[in-house]
Structure to design on (329 residues):
DNA sequence: CACTTGACCTGTCCGC
DNA sequence: TGCGGACAGGTCAAGT
């Protein structure tokens, strides 16, 4: 779910919240989410400063003063949430919860409160200098996979319900050489993403659906299911249309629509469909502006036809059958 | 190489 | 109310 706009929103938030902070300790709950050698973590993360927060495609890059980078992929349910004062916020949240009726408390709210309580519990017992500071901790919260604790006791939580995401520490110079990074297509919001570049890359997938093609991160970087549906509706293209049946003109329009929806979503702080939140734990509002995504059984904003949900490229897909005619031969 | 499908996980929702 | 199964959808590995 975190796609380019969501990851970019987290990046911007982290940039203003953690740059310059010194890492005191790191705690994690399983090897899959944090596949790093404790000795490397100890040597290159502990006592280092955060120098930059970058993004490439859907990958977040937290660069450290040691020339190492914490590379993070949120995949489906990952969150990176910064908390400056966990004790105070936990008290505030508990106070708010007491003053709300059961109905008013949404799941996210309770989730954050339990995370904050955990943060102040004695389960964080591996401080800097402790030989086990980067080993598996005994974390009571179910979805907190990694906790980065800074010198001022502020914390960065990497939460990930489904454990698809990961955070790994590697030399900054080797980030671009990671197999996934090498194969990535162009950044859609950079100047390099011209009509010519987009069309030639998309046409390498001539015999697949246009939706599968734009979801392919080697064609272009950063589009996922939400913005694929949104941009295809904008370009009036049926997602199942084979690439070979699309004209250059149509692909040019699609490129423009991709840029449009990504920019609009960044402006709205991303889409909170299920559990995406930004670096401050807040939801994004793009979903309020979505034209087709999650709008099944509602009227198309262009022609009022009821939007349907079907399956294309193995994904849930939202279409207006009148605006998006299917022309495969 | 091009393309499709299933696996990786866990929480939620829906029908019985 | 409990319970099984479908579903969510980013990427990789294995299949055709």
């Amino acid at each position: 779910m975190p796609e380019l706009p969501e990851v970019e929103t987290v990046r911007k938030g982290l940039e203003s919240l953690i740059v310059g902070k010194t890492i005191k300790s790191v705690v994690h709950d399983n090897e899959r989410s944090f596949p790093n050698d404790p000795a490397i973590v100890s040597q290159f993360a502990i006592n280092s400063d955060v120098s930059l927060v970058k993004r490439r495609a859907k990958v977040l890059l937290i660069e450290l003063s040691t020339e190492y980078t914490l590379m993070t992929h949120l995949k489906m349910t990952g969150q990176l949430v910064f908390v400056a004062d966990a004790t105070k916020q936990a008290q505030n949240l508990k106070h708010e919860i007491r003053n709300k009726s059961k109905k008013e408390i949404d799941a996210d709210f309770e989730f954050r409160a339990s995370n904050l309580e955990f943060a102040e519990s004695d389960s964080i017992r591996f401080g800097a200098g402790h030989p086990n500071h980067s080993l598996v901790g005994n974390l009571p919260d179910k979805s907190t996979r990694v906790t980065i604790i800074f010198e001022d006791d502020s914390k960065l939580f990497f939460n990930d319900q489904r454990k698809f995401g990961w955070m790994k520490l590697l030399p900054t110079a080797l980030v671009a050489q990671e197999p996934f990074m090498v194969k990535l297509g162009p950044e859609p919001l950079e100047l390099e993403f011209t009509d010519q570049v987009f069309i030639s890359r998309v046409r390498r997938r001539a015999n697949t659906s246009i939706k599968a093609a734009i979801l392919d991160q080697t064609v272009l970087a950063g589009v996922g299911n939400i913005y694929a549906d949104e941009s295809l509706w904008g370009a009036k293209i049926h997602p199942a249309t084979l690439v070979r049946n699309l004209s250059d003109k149509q692909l040019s329009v699609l490129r423009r629509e991709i840029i449009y929806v990504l920019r609009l979503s960044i402006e709205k702080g991303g889409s909170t469909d299920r559990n995406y939140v930004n670096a401050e734990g807040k939801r994004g509002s793009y979903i309020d502006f979505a034209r087709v995504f999650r709008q099944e059984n509602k009227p198309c904003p262009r022609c009022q036809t009821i939007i349907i949900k079907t399956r294309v490229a193995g994904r849930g897909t939202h279409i207006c059958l009148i605006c998006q005619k299917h022309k495969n031969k």
